[in-house]
Write a structure and sequence with these properties.
With 579 residues, the chain is α+β, with helices and mostly antiparallel strands. The chain has helices at residues 45-51, 73-77, 96-113, 130-135, 140-157, 232-238, 269-286, 314-331, 435-441, 486-503, 520-525, 530-548, and strands at residues 2-5, 15-24, 30-40, 62-67, 82-92, 118-127, 161-171, 179-190, 202-209, 217-227, 249-254, 258-268, 296-305, 335-344, 361-364, 384-393, 405-411, 420-430, 458-460, 472-482, 508-517, 551-560, 568-576.
Length: 579
């Protein structure tokens, strides 16, 4: 479906700009199997992979691991502790029958081999394959035809004659909005009674690819419940032997009886089995107090990560952009000229994040153009983007010869370590109490009116059955304290929690640590060398210049925002020689 949209972003004299969009719907062509392999605590990741040899399922399909134990009762209800190794396998829909037969055969082989492994599988859903996504392309000629017709309609209404195309650029809708692409076409007015010169004769294209990386680490979330009097040191001591230290601390929450300490631990796949085994053994030991005990342990995998920083594939990005620009120029009867400008939109850090979804390329007329999101999942935001502006010839306009340039961001990764804990505190009090009254009730906590959160107040109005209760309001606060005072703040809030709860059945205090953060003072005090930032930017610019066939020149412009962005800056380099 093609439709025309108004383009309000920029209005140049003597031009008619029309934005058109095209949507598409792709039918799923793959079935996704969820595969679970159960093993004993002594079985490692490599052993599981060896058992799957020849199946087409390997480390790239691994989605996580977990154990089946939560307490002593599970030994009776679930049998001995096991590790569940989870994999995801996508196969063409046409091969679904054969895939089921192959998995069934592996299931039987596992059982007969008696190696302590068992396999189960199910269909998790359907998706559009990356290959099919990459094969889709927007109809540039169709978009141009719709834009031309729309421009003629508006031109006729205003008494103007539509002239040649002078520039094209584009953008895309978000994956949640559906599949599609958008293009803005700017036409010259004919004849051009120019008060201001027409800026045209350009095609701007943005190419994007995700950072190439392979997950090799598992991120675990570990929660330990201890009595309310416990400290961070107590929690770390209780987790001895699991690899967890105070540096893994993430948050704490609780009440007058118990605190729940949460830690984040990143483990290489090669150490996953031993870590899960250690956590499972400790889990059984701590949970031995039974269901009513104040000490317990739980853990789960949060996501998969890559330990290796990726490098943006600039040669591929340049090739993608040039190919798309040639297609656009050709559709408008233009010939592609030299490169006028290049801009790098990649993340400054260049560090790969979660890589559970396969990396793939897509093309754009500004953002995303041509590769579409899966029906069952939304693809990750591409980490590497490159915008290229080309001169075009034969448009009939008078394209300006612009200086060639390359603009990139430079950064030095010197983010200071977290030095504050961020508490969320909620105080429930009678509606008759004012903010000042509430602050007086929690005096000594360090909370002031400035800490009142932007979250809405929770108002409770009792019904007929609870007419004896008075209306109450829950006041939300956010409190940042130095990490060195973490335990002191927990003790203070716990004491206030007990005091307020004992004073009234309708009053209460609830708190937890939302997370850790770097204070504004630490950010302002961070020191980074402008020379290091420039060298980082120059290295990226040189890679782009080499890929684009340009010669890198001197810096011609710099942009920097002081404060939290003090170690990041944008540099514009002169360049020449691009064809």
């Amino acid at each position: 479906m093609l439709c025309a949209l108004p383009a309000w972003a920029q209005l140049n004299d003597n031009t008619i700009a029309i934005t058109v969009s095209q949507s598409a719907t792709l039918a799923p062509d793959q079935v996704v199997f969820s595969i679970d392999i159960s093993s004993g605590l002594g079985t490692g990741f490599d052993t599981v992979l060896n058992a799957l040899a020849g199946s087409g399922i390997g480390a790239a399909n691994f989605t996580g691991a977990s154990t089946n134990g939560q307490g002593l009762l599970d030994v009776v209800t679930r049998g001995p502790l096991m590790i569940d190794w989870n994999f995801s396998w996508a196969v063409p829909l046409a091969n679904m029958k054969f895939a089921v037969q192959a998995l069934t055969e592996y299931q039987q082989n596992f059982s007969q081999a008696k190696q302590g492994l068992s396999l189960s599988f199910s269909v998790a859903g359907f998706q559009v394959s990356p290959q099919l996504q990459q094969m889709q392309s927007c109809s540039v000629s169709g978009l141009l035809a719709v834009a031309t017709a729309q421009a003629q309609k508006f031109g006729a209404a205003a008494g103007l004659t539509v002239g040649p195309v002078v520039s094209m650029s584009g953008a895309s809708s978000s994956p949640a909005a559906g599949l599609g692409c958008t293009m803005t076409v700017t036409f010259a007015r004919q004849p051009a009674v120019a008060v201001l010169p027409i800026i045209g004769g350009t095609v701007t294209v943005t190419a994007a690819r995700s950072l190439p990386s392979q997950a090799d680490e598992s991120a675990l979330s570990v929660s330990l419940q201890l009595p309310a009097t416990s400290t961070l040191d107590n929690a770390v001591s209780a987790l001895s032997g699991t690899g967890i230290t105070a540096s893994n601390f993430a948050s704490v929450s609780g009440d007058a009886q118990a605190l729940i300490w949460t830690f984040n631990l990143v483990v290489p796949f090669s150490q996953l089995q031993s870590t899960l085994s250690a956590l499972s053994g400790l889990q059984q030991k701590l949970n031995a107090n039974g269901l009513n005990g104040l000490t317990s342990l739980s853990f789960s995998q949060s996501n998969l990560e890559s330990s290796v920083a990726g490098t943006c594939p600039y040669a591929g990005l340049v090739s993608d952009a040039r190919s798309q620009a040639m297609s656009l120029a050709s559709s408008a009867g233009l010939s592609l000229g030299p490169i006028l400008a290049v801009s790098d939109g990649s993340a400054a850090s260049g560090v790969a994040g979660a890589t559970n979804t396969p990396a793939y390329a897509f093309y754009s007329l500004g953002a995303t153009f041509g590769v579409f999101a899966s029906i069952t999942t939304i693809p990750p935001t591409p980490a590497c983007t490159l915008s290229m502006q080309f001169q075009v010839n034969g448009s009939g306009a008078n394209p300006q010869t612009l200086p060639e340039s390359i603009t990139v961001s430079g950064a030095v990764n010197t983010i200071p370590a977290a030095d504050q804990a961020l508490f969320y505190v909620s105080v429930t009090a009678p509606l008759s109490m004012t903010l000042d009254d509430v602050l007086a009730e929690i005096a000594g906590s360090g909370i002031t009116a400035a800490d009142l959160s932007s979250q809405p107040l929770a108002l409770y109005i009792p019904g007929v059955l609870n007419a004896s209760f008075a209306p109450t309001v829950s006041w939300p606060f956010t409190l940042a304290v130095p990490l060195s005072t973490l335990q002191q703040t927990i003790s203070t809030l716990t004491a206030l929690q007990t005091k307020i709860g004992n004073a009234s059945a309708q009053s209460d205090l609830y708190f937890y640590v939302e997370g850790l953060q770097t204070s504004s003072q630490a950010l302002a005090a961070q020191s980074c060398s402008p020379s290091d930032i420039l060298n980082n930017a120059r290295s990226k610019a040189q890679s782009i210049a080499t890929a684009a066939g340009l010669s890198l020149g001197p810096v011609v412009a710099i942009s920097n925002v002081a404060g939290s962005s003090g170690c990041t800056a944008a540099f514009k380099f002169a360049a020449n020689g691009g064809q």
